[in-house]
Each structure stands twice: as C-alpha cells, then as structure tokens.
Amino acid sequence: MIELSEKLIFMGEEPKNDGKLRDNVGNFLNAYTALTPDGKVAFLVALDKSIKNKDAREKRMYIALLKAARDGKSVDEAIESMSKAEKEEG
Asked: Does pLDDT of 4 surpass 50?
C-alpha cells in the first residue's frame, strides 16, 4: 500500500518527489482496477483496518485516492484530488 505519510508538498504545480509519488499512485490505480469485484471488497476491508488509526488528514488522502481509482481518474487527477483532500479542514 502507498505510504501517504510522505506528505504531498507542492511547490507551484509540481509535487516534491514527483517521480516516486507518480509511480506509487500509478501502481495503486493499476492494481485497484485489476481487482475483481470480490477483490475490491476484500481490499476495502483491509484498507479500512489499515487507516483506522491514521489522523484525519491522512484518512482524507486515502479516501481521495480510492475515489480517484473508482472513478478511473489519471495519475495527475488522483494526485490533485489527494492534494485537495490534504488541505481540507476537518
């Protein structure tokens, strides 16, 4: 699973460690889309358990990444969604 504790720090439009972040997000999107419906359910259960004790910001980022995967978004769109989620209050 992607370690999102590597904060998404944007400088202008480009995130720091862009290559590694893009690779990780791309791998996640590819893996999620390859799952069967039963595999997706099992993955969601495992994800829920793994983010249970994360802080609110990190949970929002995982949820944004998952929504991007579900919606068939590109790597750049997923990263943008995660960045917006990171900045949200709550």
From this structure: no
Cα separation, 61 vs 85, whole angstroms: 5
Sign of the alpha-carbon dihedral angle for 55, 2, 79, 5 = positive
Tokens 């390859």 belong to 34
The pTM assigned to this predicted structure is: 0.76
Between residues 13 and 36, which one has the greater pLDDT?
A: 36
pLDDT at 20 > cutoff 70: yes
Q: What integer pLDDT is reported at residue 63 of this predicted model?
A: 94
Tell me the pairing of strands 10-11 and 14-15: antiparallel
- CA neighbours closer than 13 Å in the CB half-sphere of residue 87: 9
Q: How many residues are recorded in the chain? A: 90
- Residue whose token pair is 């978004």: 73
The sign of the CA dihedral 28, 56, 79, 66 is positive
